[in-house]
Amino acid sequence: MAYHEFDLLIAGAGPAGCTLALNLAEKGLHIAIIEKDFFPRNKICGDALSGKVLSVMKRLPGSIYDDFLKGVDKIPSWGIRFTAPNLHSIDIPFLTDRTEGMQAPGYVCRRYDFDNFLFGKLKEYPNIQIFQGERVAGLSVTPDYIQVKTGNHEFRGQVIAGADGVHSIVRKFFDPKPIEKKHFCIGIRAYFENVSGIHAENFIELIFLKELLPGYFWIFPSTQGKVNAGFGMLQSQVVKRKENLVHIFNELITNHPLLAPRFKNATCVSKAEAHSLPLGTRHLNRSGNRYILLGDAAFLVDPFSGEGIGNAMASGEIAAAILEDPFRKNDFSANALGAYDARIHRRFSQEFKTTSIMQRLAGSAWLFNMVVDKARKNKELSDLLTAMFTNEDIMKKLTRPGFYAGLLFK
Ligand SMILES: Cc1cc2nc3c(=O)[nH]c(=O)nc-3n(C[C@H](O)[C@H](O)[C@H](O)COP(=O)(O)OP(=O)(O)OC[C@H]3O[C@@H](n4cnc5c(N)ncnc54)[C@H](O)[C@@H]3O)c2cc1C
After folding, report:
1. What atom of ligand 1 comes closest to residue 41's alpha carbon?
2. Does residue 162 share a domain with residue 251?
3. Which residue has its alpha carbon closest to ligand 1 atom 52?
4. Which end of the chain is flanked by fewer CB atoms within 10 Å, N or C?
5. Environment class of residue 113 by beta-carbon count within 10 Å: exposed (0-12), middle (13-18) or buried (19+)?
6. Is 335 part of any domain?
């Protein structure tokens, strides 16, 4: 067994782990990034990259953002098509005014490509050492360091960042309490060719079918003329239905009155694969003595939209900023690292409160139907829905019962 010493150990090279490492790349730290898979690797996802992802990427060192715009296979997306349970749809652009040549507010990019792009950037920094095909299997904490064991290596570091996804071994080591099912959603996705009815400007589609509420079916136009399609449901509902997700998926695309015609000539070009999403409704300690948790390991997925990449990257950015001080003072106590928890709380708690309410409201089919029907006829309301993507106050407004009561009379 090979033995290594580092300043910082990062478990997991997804968007959270890579963002942390890249933000610290020029700070003189000796960093190990320990990843169980070999890149490029498959990641089950809808592949939608929101404005949050782009804004974190813009602040990464070097030319990462420009390289992403120039070099990565992706398609731009300019808005969302919402379909209500009554199957009426509305197109909501991400922007109310657009100028020639501006960058798209969002993209769809296969995680196989996106994650591999970020991962590839790590290799530009000699102080970041990458260990692929090494699963973090055991941890122990001493007064002076944290120790990690994988199949072939033993690592010592001052602190560990658990960026190892929803089933994080780092989180389970420090906080082994079981987590209630209501804090998870399960998503299943597959890639298709020849799905009809795709929006001319690649609007991503969220289709709120009554059988999935508050979850939804998505159709995201992807690269090479393919489509990433799938659906997410609360885990508690999946358990209640006692039905296989692949079976539900096939049933929907074969028999549902809205989906069946669109998938009639489609070919499925991948396996349908499912994975869990850890929702931001779960409160937990995201730091403690010699550890911090990022991204999915820290339950940072938006409870309404299921978006997690941007939040994972934002947590990596926050962690990088916070860790500078403990390294300067050589203090990795729970107290010192508590600053990370406090910053994560400040950054996400209000947003998650709002999106949790939206998740609950989305469970109500009639409310959804009413909002979409009113917005189809009322430009002021549809502009308000557009503004919700960039303005948290407007999102909050959408969680107030008075807002919906007012709509009844519009
Ligand atoms: C079906 C589905 C659809 C989704 N769609 C979207 C979407 O369209 N847009 C969006 O923004 N979000 C979406 N999400 C959420 C998004 O995928 C996650 O929030 C995001 O990947 C979190 O990034 P992360 O870096 O925290 O974790 P991950 O991306 O999961 O990366 C964790 C890494 O840790 C590695 N790892 C795990 N265990 C160990 C171990 N013991 N030792 C070493 N390495 C380990 C893994 O191999 C992996 O590379 C979706 C999720 C699902 C399941």
Report:
1. 49
2. no
3. 45
4. N
5. middle
6. yes
402 inside domain: yes
Residue 21: both structure tokens together: 């490492």
Q: With H, G, I as helix, E, B as strand and everything else as coil, classify residue 240.
A: helix
With 0.85 as the threshold, say if the pTM is over it: yes
Mean pLDDT of the chain: 92
Ligand 1 atom, smallest distance to 48 CA = 8
Do 151 and 39 belong together in one domain?
A: yes
Name the residue range of residue 244's domain.
Answer: 181-278
Domain's final residue, options 251, 278, 305: 278
Ligand 1 centroid–CA 277 distance in Å is: 8
- Please indicate, yes or no, if residue 87 is contained in any of the structural domains: no
How far, in Å, from the CA of 368 to the mean position of ligand 1? Answer: 29
pLDDT digits (tens, 9 = 90+) for 286-310: 999 999 999 999 999 999 889 999 9
The domain spanning residue 265 has which CATH number?
Answer: 3.30.9.10
Q: Kindly give the distance from the C-alpha atom of residue 296 to the centroid of ligand 1, in angstroms, as a whole number.
A: 6
57 lies in a domain? yes
Ligand 1 center–CA 311 separation, angstroms: 11
Q: Are residues 172 and 227 in the same domain?
A: no
Phi, psi (rounded to 5 degrees) for 143:
-60, -25
Q: Please tell me whether residues 194 and 335 are part of one structural domain.
A: no
At 301 the three-state DSSP class reads strand
Q: From the alpha carbon of 52, which atom of ligand 1 is closest?
A: 11
184-193/226-234 β-pairing: antiparallel
Which residues have any ligand 1 atom within 6 Å of their CB? 11-17, 34-37, 43-48, 135-136, 163-165, 169, 187, 189, 230, 275, 277, 295-296, 301, 306-310, 312
pLDDT tens column, 49-105: 998 999 999 999 999 999 999 999 999 999 889 899 999 998 888 876 778 888 898
- Ligand 1 atom with the smallest distance to the CA of 168 is 38
Identify which of 63, 275, 64, 288 has the alpha carbon closest to the alpha carbon of residue 173: 288
- Provide the domain count of the chain: 3
| Ligand 1 centre distance from Cα of residue 402 (Å) | 37
Same domain, 235 and 172: no
Question: pLDDT per residue over 137-169, tens digit each?
Answer: 999 999 999 999 999 999 999 999 999 999 999
Q: Do 250 and 291 share a domain, yes or no?
A: no
Strands 291-293, 8-11: pairing is unpaired
